[in-house]
TrEMBL record:
Parts of the chain that traverse the membrane: 44-69, 81-98, 136-154
Taxonomy, superkingdom: Bacteria
Keywords: Lipid metabolism, Membrane, Oxidoreductase, Transmembrane, Transmembrane helix
Protein name: Sterol desaturase family protein
InterPro entries given in the database record: Fatty_acid_hydroxylase (IPR006694), Sterol_desaturase/TMEM195 (IPR051689)
Residue ranges occupied by any Fatty acid hydroxylase domain in the UniProt entry: 83-216
Family annotation (Pfam families): FA_hydroxylase
GO molecular function, one term: glyceryl-ether monooxygenase activity
Keyword Cytoplasm included in the entry's annotation: no
Length: 278
């Protein structure tokens, strides 16, 4: 099967090197640029994700293929409208995947990896989790709707490829109609912000219209503070990949009852028994 992301790796490396060189030769006091140890950790997280995906893609293909075989209709891949429908179906799937991975703690434990850098550059796009299995339920309905598995995986790759290029401080706000429809570097900087006003916003993949429709859109109005509300202060890839799962485990061991245990797993990342309604 053709792997778009694997073929794009040389492009990622070239663009990352060019962006890093731009900060070296044309520094900007208003931008964070790069820190070698941080970028190295992001690249290692990306490589680990690629290794895990080698096996996980086999599982995905098998599950999607089984769902596709029992689908009541099989949509034709040679029809342009099928690709248009797939684009919007993938966008909706990604929006809800992304939103729930910020609002359900056990899912956040996987996604938090991507937000753990206190820098924002193209290397940050490579900081990916090593637990990709949490994404399976969100795209499985597309196979049941009759989209061929190879089309689903290709569209996912196209979305990821697009999102790589919006992880940059080197691009300001774009032409207003583009900013209104598409996810842009400005919108995604907001998404990576730990500022209180920016938390849990701008979940879109290629498009930003879903955030506008569902009330999760925020424009970039003040300087963004990147990272987590409580940063982990480590460049160790294993700790970056597992720190929130370890924190959940600690909370579960200390929980006094099943209700609190369920809250630590299924509520938002900031939930504690003290914040629960009485």
């Amino acid at each position: 099967m053709f792997d778009l992301i694997a073929h794009a790796i040389p492009v990622f490396v070239l663009c990352l090197a060019l962006e890093a060189a731009s900060f070296h030769f044309l520094p900007d006091d208003d931008r964070l640029g790069y820190r070698f140890r941080d970028a190295r950790t992001s690249v290692l997280m990306g490589l680990g994700n690629v290794v895990v995906d080698l096996g996980w893609k086999l599982v995905l293909v098998a599950v999607y293929a089984a769902a596709y075989l029992v689908a009541p209709v099989h949509l034709p891949a040679d029809q342009p409208l099928t690709w248009v429908a797939l684009f919007f179906a993938d966008e909706i799937a990604f929006y809800w995947y992304h939103r729930t991975h910020h609002t359900v703690r056990v899912l956040w434990a996987s996604h938090v990896v991507h937000h753990s850098s206190e820098f924002y550059n193209l290397s940050t796009a490579l900081r990916q989790p090593w637990t990709p299995f949490t994404a399976l339920p969100y795209w499985l309905p597309l196979a049941l709707l009759g989209f061929p598995p190879w089309m689903i995986l290709l569209q996912q790759s196209i979305s990821l490829l697009y999102q790589f290029f919006i992880h940059t401080e080197r691009v300001g706000k774009l032409w207003r109609p583009i900013e209104f429809v598409f996810n842009t570097p400005s919108h995604h900087r907001v998404h990576h912000g730990s500022n209180t006003e920016y938390l849990d916003t701008n979940y879109g993949g290629i498009l930003i219209v879903w955030d506008r429709l569902f009330g999760t859109f925020r424009p970039e109005t003040t300087p963004v503070r990147y990272g987590l509300t409580k940063n982990i202060a480590t460049y160790n890839p294993i700790r970056v990949a597992t720190h929130e799962f370890a924190a959940i485990w600690r909370d579960l061991r200390a929980a006094p009852n099943w209700r609190v245990m369920a809250g630590h797993v299924l509520r938002g990342p900031g939930w504690t028994p003290d914040t629960a309604p009485r």
